[in-house]
Amino acid sequence: MSFNPGQPVATDPGLFPIPVGPARRKVIQKYRALAEAIGRTWTATVRSDVALHPGSRFDIDCEQVVIDAANALVIARTIDQEFEGLLAPNDQEAYKKFRDDDTDGRIVRGLTLIRNADTHADSVIEMDSNRVVGGAGGWRVFPVWKEHADLPVEIQNLHRTASGVHKRYRDWVAGRLVVETLLDVMRFFDRCDPSLARRSESGDLQGFPLIEMGAQGYDCLHPYWLRENELSEQLLDRFMAMAPTGVGRRIHRAVPRIDTTLLVGVTVLSHYRMSFIESAEQVARDIAGGYVYTAATNDGDVPVMLCDGVLMLGVTALAQADLAAISDEGALAQDGTDDDICASWEAQMSDAFWYREHRRPAL
Fold first, then answer.
1. Residue 230: φ, ψ to 5°
2. DSSP assignment letter at 145
3. Which of 70, 67, 65, 61 is closest to 43 using CA atoms?
4. Per the CB 3.0–4.6 Å rule, which of 91, 172, 209, 256 could disulfide with 222?
């Protein structure tokens, strides 16, 4: 029986089973300690100090998350070293190669930098959190690991840390949600030897799924659940295949981008208007599917047609047409510089729930 795709059960042999012996019991204890440390780190995301200042500016202190995550990584490094030391010599080399080639293993290796910094550096580990939800009942923060270039210089040049560890951090850890990377670590070790983890009565990993915090959107709460970006990619494909809601869309602005043109406007709904940003390719797919787009020009609204794959206003390509903002609706679509528009679109492409709010708002 498999609980989630790719999840082994306790009786599966695993990729690198730890041999029977006195040291095996220590690894079993460390597996339990790692699961509990991940749970504490998750809980700490609702115990961070958040101060709201005028103008909706937040000061976020993730110190408790840092403390609990660093503890988890010390445990993880101990488990990693036990695999390196307890396996037969040939299996030790195979384990290291697998760790270097496997996505989860690369994250294990990259997070060694944070463990080493916590153990050997004087500099304090810090995290970023550009998202906060909650209010009077408490705040929930979403800490992410800093980019390598934003770490303290001492940590960027940390002695006794292999250059490959720094590379793995840059490529596989930086910018990721802290809790999700810890779940990656748990998944890696469970795949290596699933017989070492504690199990609940159902046979699932004990302590998982993590406790739900009641936040809007999706939280990855289990080592074998989809990560937020994986789910977002699947949902984006689904939402893009569905027609926008509303009776039509009016385009007020075209913003050139390296690989596309972004079209900005408003969706016309029954009692209100909702702004949107779509790529020209997505608008073309919508029109091919029968959805109505118009463009605001100085001569009035003109239907957008699809001719040989090109969006056209009569005989003029939409990308070259002079568009005009119209009253309040124009204000919705015209806010921000071209860079602001591009940044907003990129943010929506990484957050399917945000994209859905603009593509399929409630009628």
1. -65, -45
2. E
3. 65
4. 209
Counting other chains too, the contacts that 2-10 makes at CB distance below 8 Å and 24 or more residues apart are: 3/202, 3/203, 3/204, 3/224, 4/222, 4/224, 4/225, 5/224, 6/191, 6/224, 7/190, 7/223, 7/224, 8/190, 8/191, 8/194, 9/194, 9/203, 10/194, 10/195, 10/197, 10/199, 10/203
291-341 pLDDT, tens per residue?
999 999 988 899 999 999 999 999 999 988 999 876 555 445 456 789 989
pTM here is 0.82
pLDDT digits (tens, 9 = 90+) for 1-51: 558 999 999 999 999 999 999 999 999 999 999 999 999 999 999 877 766
DSSP H helix total and E strand total for the chain: 12, 14
Please name the residue that has the structure tokens 């070259």: 320
DSSP readout, 158-180? -TT--HHHHHHIIIIITTSBHHH
